[in-house]
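Please produce the structure of this protein holding nicotinamide-adenine-dinucleotide.
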Amino acid sequence: MDQSHITMKLQNKTIIITGASKGLGVAMAEVCSREGAKVVIAAPSQPDLDLVADRIRAAGGTIEAVAADVSRPADLENLVAKTVATFGRIDGVINNAGINYVKPFLEIDPKEWQRVLDVDLNGAFLLTQLSARQMVKQGGGGSIVQIASVHTHAALVGAAPYDAAKHGMVGFSKAAAVELAPLGIRVNILSPGLCATEIWKDIVAAAPSEKECLDYWYANIPGQRLIAPEEVAKSCVFLLSDDSSCITGANIFADLGMTSLLLGREPYASKAITDGTK
Ligand SMILES: NC(=O)c1ccc[n+]([C@@H]2O[C@H](COP(=O)([O-])OP(=O)(O)OC[C@H]3O[C@@H](n4cnc5c(N)ncnc54)[C@H](O)[C@@H]3O)[C@@H](O)[C@H]2O)c1
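Below is the modeled complex.
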């Protein structure tokens, strides 16, 4: 079939992706590259980034790998400067880098609280600000995507710093969206549910058996499966591309219905409630 009429959704756009040495970030880099973007990936480990970059280059992609810890302002300034020096502009950003410490509320160490806020919230804020300044300078608008979580709908037990950081992302992103909209810069939040990354391996490892683990999670996920990293990446492409040109300030749940469900399915059948006429 002749597919020459199909255009790539991110053709000629330069996109920065943080946290792209493993997990969802790698899928984002691969999918954005496939859609024609020039990609700049960032994470603390240069060797890990280079492995990802080499693979994408071998597949024909245009990619640069810049070591950066998003909690360090100097690293983010360098990331933006290197992107502009290499590709001349920034059209999109995915603030994907994120960490979580799972601990009961009463046992949270202030240092752990601070670290999660520094990486998940402050890093995303600063890169949004630095990139948006560059977008204003170069003209032509842009699109910034924050990777938050279903934790922006309600809390899960043992994740207070993460809950706070991800809610904070929604707050500053809505503020940025309304202030930057007149300049053609869109800021949206994508909130994934449970994805098939290393986090899932950790969850299964902590369960008595994989079956019990699946039974529990599938009772709480209407779609009854895990989300593939590529699915999250494709939602990012939508938000980065002109296909979403009228969407800004939105928090979109990519969660197979998880946050629409109040309680998981009961393991027994409850009596149907009727109006008593039958
Ligand atoms: N996996 C899920 O089920 C899920 C669900 C909802 C939201 N999320 C969010 O998606 C994002 C990616 O999750 P993942 O599962 O791929 O995580 P992951 O742990 O597999 O990968 C995280 C990436 O972030 C990088 N990173 C960590 N600290 C960093 C720092 N200080 N500076 C720069 N990069 C840093 C790591 O090197 C890695 O590349 C996170 O923000 C996470 O909160 C994940």
